[in-house]
């Protein structure tokens, strides 16, 4: 399946570099109204006249269907309670099974699904797990199973779950929460779920372990230990952010590596953050592929353990033992290579320097979400959460303000749930409840004043909206809805 830059060539470059649309994602999500050949031929004729930007925009509007920025015709009822509002939003954010359209970047999915909202008109991989938490509280198990079946279909078609169901995402995945989704569904449907999706889990595992594609997700350390990093198959500007990537590369000596690291950060879901910057502040020092990511390795530990469970249920004890050993080796490696005993926090690991990265981020609490650390580690970690990350509106994602959306002063729903659940796992229920209360209060405050649930929030100054990043803050919003509803039901 060709990406938009390959498909539309000169037209693509002109539209993106001339910034015909304020958001580079708009054009790559357009649907052609005629054949690709006739569009390209028509544009070549137009180019002979040295068209203005307005003429190029009119050409696109004449030959493509422009996607709406949000759900047309939907108006918030601000008098509705927050839980009722979320119940209504599930219907607004649901999409039917897709039909293939030649020339469209959308990868058609066979079952209905939930999109995040705003500019995100497709399913996103890791967003979907946190969205499912709320769907489960709404007893919407059919759409949860539909979405898992869609992801299984993507795995069996492409060998992995792309970042989202767009052709321009086919060079990377996102944090692998597929096994967590299966675990969630098994609560409702029982252990047969593990057996049903076992082939898909094993195939996804092969992708992350470099057996499907030569992606270089795996890094072997000096003692033979293999751990994982985020890594994109391509090293060229992202079609959905073509202008931004091209502009950033002008001040860079190795554009190819820059593009790879930008794309790898997108695979991490943290696009973008000083977490990935070598100097902690400057965008063009991004070094995503130079770091072993603590959260990714925790997710792969869970995938190994879940595959083991599926194999055990299938009666394949010998193969189950293999994956049990893989999971145990990774658990020990996470505690060895990512843990800083001095402050009790987990960090990413810098490959070339063979030491912990110096950026303290909320990703460092992920091991507790998966029961990876020993019990004795929780006191120090909880003190860091309370002392460094907890603010008036909830948890700040990092302790640095770079202007990037995954840094101070912003907080995000998925990291709140990971931390709340991780604390509860280790008996720190009072701190978990305090964080839940602060985060829910901020979500509800913004909803009451705007009628919206947002993609991210400013947790430092709760009177200000969240900012930073490549695009304005989006409303909708799948994972915010899911985590908030889960918190409301769990903590009453």
Description:
The protein has 492 residues and is mostly helical. Among the domains are: 4-65, no CATH class; 375-492, no CATH class. Helix content is 49%, strand content 7%. It is built from 19 helices and 15 strands. The protein has helices at 4-17, 25-28, 36-47, 53-63, 82-93, 125-137, 141-158, 178-189, 192-196, 198-208, 242-249, 255-268, 294-313, 317-337, 366-369, 378-389, 413-425, 429-450, 478-491, and strands at 31-32, 64-65, 94-95, 113-114, 218-220, 226-228, 291-292, 339-340, 345-346, 349-350, 355-356, 390-391, 394-395, 410-411, 457-458. A 3-stranded antiparallel sheet has the order 7-10-11. A two-stranded antiparallel sheet has the order 1-2. A hairpin with a 4-residue loop joins strand 8 (339-340) and strand 9. Helix 5 (82-93) packs antiparallel against helix 19, helix 6 runs parallel beside helix 8 and helix 18 (429-450) crosses helix 19 (478-491).
Alpha-carbon distance between the termini?
Answer: 47 Å
Q: Residue ranges: pLDDT <50 for 5 or more in a row?
A: none
Order of neighbouring strands in the sheet with most strands: 7-10-11
Shape: globular
Fraction of residues in helices? 40-55%
Count of alpha and pi helical runs:
19
Beta-strand content: 5-15%
State the major sheet. Answer: 3 strands, antiparallel
Question: How many DSSP E strands?
Answer: 15
- Radius of gyration, CA atoms, in whole angstroms: 22 Å
Question: How confident overall, as mean pLDDT?
Answer: 96
Structure class? mainly alpha
């Amino acid at each position: 399946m060709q990406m938009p830059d390959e498909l539309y060539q000169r037209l693509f470059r002109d539209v993106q570099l001339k910034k015909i649309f304020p958001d580079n994602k708009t054009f790559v999500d357009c649907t052609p109204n005629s054949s690709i050949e006739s569009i390209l031929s028509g544009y070549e004729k137009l180019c002979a006249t040295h068209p203005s930007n307005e003429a190029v925009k009119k050409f696109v509007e004449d030959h493509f269907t422009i996607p709406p920025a949000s759900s047309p015709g939907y108006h918030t009822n601000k008098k509705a309670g927050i839980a009722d509002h979320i119940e209504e939003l599930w219907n607004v954010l649901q999409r039917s099974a897709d039909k293939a359209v030649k020339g469209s970047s959308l990868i058609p999915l066979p079952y209905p699904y939930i999109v995040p909202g705003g500019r995100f008109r497709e399913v996103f991989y890791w967003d979907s797990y946190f969205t499912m938490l709320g769907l489960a509280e709404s007893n919407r198990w059919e759409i949860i199973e539909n979405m898992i079946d869609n992801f299984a279909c993507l795995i069996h078609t492409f060998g992995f779950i792309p970042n989202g169901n767009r052709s321009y995402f086919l060079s990377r995945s996102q944090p692998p929460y597929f096994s967590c989704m299966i675990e969630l569904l098994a609560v409702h449907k029982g252990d047969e779920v593990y057996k049903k999706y076992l082939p898909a889990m094993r195939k996804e595992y092969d992708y992350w372990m470099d057996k499907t594609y030569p992606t270089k997700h795996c890094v072997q350390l000096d003692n033979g230990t293999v751990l994982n990093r985020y890594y994109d198959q391509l090293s060229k500007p992202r079609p959905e952010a073509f202008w931004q990537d091209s502009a950033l590369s002008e001040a860079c000596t190795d554009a190819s590596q820059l593009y790879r690291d930008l794309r790898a950060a997108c695979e991490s879901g943290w696009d973008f953050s000083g977490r990935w910057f070598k100097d902690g502040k400057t965008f063009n020092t991004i070094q995503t592929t130079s770091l072993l990511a603590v959260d990714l390795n925790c997710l792969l530990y869970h995938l190994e353990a879940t595959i083991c469970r599926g194999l055990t249920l299938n009666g394949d004890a010998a193969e189950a033992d293999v994956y049990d050993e893989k999971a145990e080796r990774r658990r020990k490696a996470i505690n060895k290579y990512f843990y800083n005993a001095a402050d009790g926090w987990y960090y990413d690991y810098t490959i070339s320097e063979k030491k912990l990265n110096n950026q303290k981020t909320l990703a460092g609490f992920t091991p507790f979400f998966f029961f990876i650390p020993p019990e004795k580690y929780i006191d120090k970690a909880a003190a860091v959460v309370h002392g460094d990350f907890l603010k008036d509106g909830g948890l700040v994602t990092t302790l640095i303000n770079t202007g990037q959306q995954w840094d101070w002063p912003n907080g995000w729903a998925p990291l709140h749930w990971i931390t709340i659940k991780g604390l509860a796992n280790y008996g720190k229920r009072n701190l978990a409840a305090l964080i839940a209360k602060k985060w829910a209060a901020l979500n509800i405050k913004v909803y009451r004043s705007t009628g919206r649930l947002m993609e991210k929030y400013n947790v430092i100054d709760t009177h200000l909206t969240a900012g930073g990043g490549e695009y304005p803050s989006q409303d909708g919003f799948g994972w915010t809805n899911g985590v908030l509803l889960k918190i409301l039901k769990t903590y009453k």
